[in-house]
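Let us begin with a simple case.
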Amino acid sequence: MGVVRLAVCVSGVYAAFLLWAIAQERLSAPFPSISPHPHTSPMEHTSTKGDKFPSSLFLNYAQAVASSLSALSYLVFNAWREGMLDRGLWKIIGFDQLFSSSSSSNSVKPEQKHVKQNGTAVTENGKRPIANGHSDIENKGQTNDKKSFRKSLPALLLQVSLFQTLAGPIGFLALRHISYPTMVLGKSCKLIPVLLLNVLLYRRRFSPHKYLVVALVTIGISIFMLMAAGGKKKKGGNDSAWGLWLLGVNLFIDGLTNSTQDQIFSTYPKFSGQQMMFSMSIFTQLLLLPMLLLPLPLHPVTLINHLPLPFLNTTSIIQPIIWNKPEFLNSISFIITHPTCMKPLLAYALLGGLGQLFIFETISHFGSLTLVMVTVTRKLFTMLLSVFVFKHSLTKGQWFGVSIVFGGIGVEALMKRREMLKRAKKDK
């Protein structure tokens, strides 16, 4: 069942986000307007290519809404299938655990023994996986003591939602100051901060072969992606120190996001992946809503010049703050005047929500390392599929990167097989 579940999760992530990427690319293109632009004649209006969608915040908000609806639909359907609708919506979505005063009902009890099933640590009652690759020792120290708010479930979920909300804009900002191949290389190394922050921040222990697998997959993906991006035009000019620092922050936030999600599943084993998805989507909407409804400065840096800070040069001319219309109003106005954007916008939101279901199913049952390995190899397997289906070709360097990645996957598969054989001998 573990192998089948993983295969379904991987297939779902690949399929949903392949189509999601197509919708995202369409949203980045101009859309024709049905109303003439001000101060232009009808002839001039018909010759324009169109306008681009004005707000990335609105796109993130739309996807968060779709993710919450997808998670809610899954949870309600699952409760109906199991005949547990009488529990009430509050418990179905996990808010009884989210707002409980103590984590004693969720934390792993010290007297519970931890066993392994398909390489995944589970409690002795067997139904709720804790995390893939986590040692038994790391969970034994978790007690029923009352936790501080910083370690409570609402605080951890708020942290993850904040990390996820910040990661995207920082990544886009970094791309303005570094080249595209540099961004590709950085994203290819995402497994490293996830592994390190799991070890350093939450004191998790992984099997020795995990470090080898992470190294092989990271090196292979880096070679493959760099060879694929090498011929592409640079975006943002030469790499600057500021851009590299932003890229590092982006990767650090990605590592914090995944490692904190592992911590939530480890500390609160009754909290399911879809319940986390629903709660995170709600938190993300609450974080984004003020930024959508309030007017924002056209150039946020100008705000600093108006602060009474001692290191500012007060003798220079201070630029006035120019305020934009709220992002929400701009986006609604754009949708009304550019109705052709509705179809890709809905596809972007709904496919993102569907993909999130598979992502949270993967991370809750197999851990963040497996999830990140699936996401960073997605483009590789997509390009390999195009090689066999559309007869495209890869360079020798790309094939070398592919061989290294499959070497890492082979090591992981071999170790999993050894673990299964050992368990089978013990059962006999």
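The second case is a distinct protein. As before, the sequence precedes its structure tokens.
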Amino acid sequence: MRNIVFHDIDVNKTYDPVISLNQAWDNIRVPIIAPILRIAIYICIGMSIMLFIERVYMAIVIACVKCLGKKRYTKYQLDAIKEDLEKNKNYPKVLVQIPMFNEKEVYKLSIGAVSGLSWPSDRLVVQVLDDSTNEVLRAMVELECQKWIEKGVNVEYETRNNRNGYKAGALREGLKKQYAKDCEFVIIFDADFQPEEDFLWRTIPYLLENPELGLVQARWKFVNADECLMTRLQEMSLDYHFSVEQEVGSSTCSFFGFNGTAGVWRMSALNDAGGWKDRTTVEDMDLAVRASLKGWKFLFVGDLAVRNELPSTFKAYRYQQHRWSCGPANLFRKMLKEIILSERVSIWKKWQLIYAFFFVRKIIAHWVTFFLYCIVIPATIMVPEVHLPKPLAIYLPAGITILNAASTLRHDLPD
């Protein structure tokens, strides 16, 4: 009994939640978190390599196009077609659609620019599709249309009692009009787009010379690119889309998407593809994919630019990016089976459409950017047991950035 020692209980010892959390983190970090993070790194390496190879391929094509000094649209004899049109007076009838929704700031500019297009007035129909919910604004748009009607321009002002299908629904309803059915070509300009006077003369002849062409797409020129840092970054991103992605697609006669505006459709191609559908938020891409699966070819005219404005507020930019990011993935899910079973396009074009256009450019490009930089790299800092390879962290991203910059050296487009 004498050897028994009684220890005093430390009544001042308290529970420390920080120590408990550290102990819990140590218990799950090595056996659970580290293996998952290693798998995520391998996935990011694979996606980065796929994206890098795609960028290298497009850079090689662009380099060849620039070195040879020839683009696909330069092989057409536009002057001969123009002379034939002026001599025989056999101008095709053209419909120009301007969908708009509460466009208070730009409606005058767009209607005025389209109404000033150089084309015989009896062969041109300007269709203003106004889904505005503001009755005062509707009256102002209708008054602007009436002003151009009095000047001899064939302007049709159309409204709807609902907004079913949004832009796709408005365009679809516009094509159901009797005067629209008589047109051979249809052009879409969003409300903030202002085409030059000779736009039709620089696009329609391509479609007249090649009956296999279903779409002629022009590029965009941003009038407010230098307004702020956000618009400058948008210009850099979209310049890559036009100067590289669409130029490569056109030059290699492979698929590239319709941008939803500043493009000329052959009416028979649009109808053959099934017309406008509102099943996704990227109705323009949906139409282009369906037309491509029907065997129609597309042409991108890189030296023809149409002026427009970039979103200058974060809210508008966020809405635009959400649509462009989520819409293609949803469309890919809905059309994968249709693409695989299509009998009118080659195996190579199916592969290019599925792998390059949808999987790499529309899915992998977004996923690797978010997953790697926002999740994997920060997580490796918290899990020192996992090593982040330098090629993934430095070399591949730097290589992709350099290829993007080298392919889109800034230059002034012709006015």
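The beta strands are 94-100, 124-130, 155-159, 185-188, 213-222, 263-266, 297-308. The longest strand covers residues 297-308.
Keep these points in mind for the review questions at the end of the chapter.
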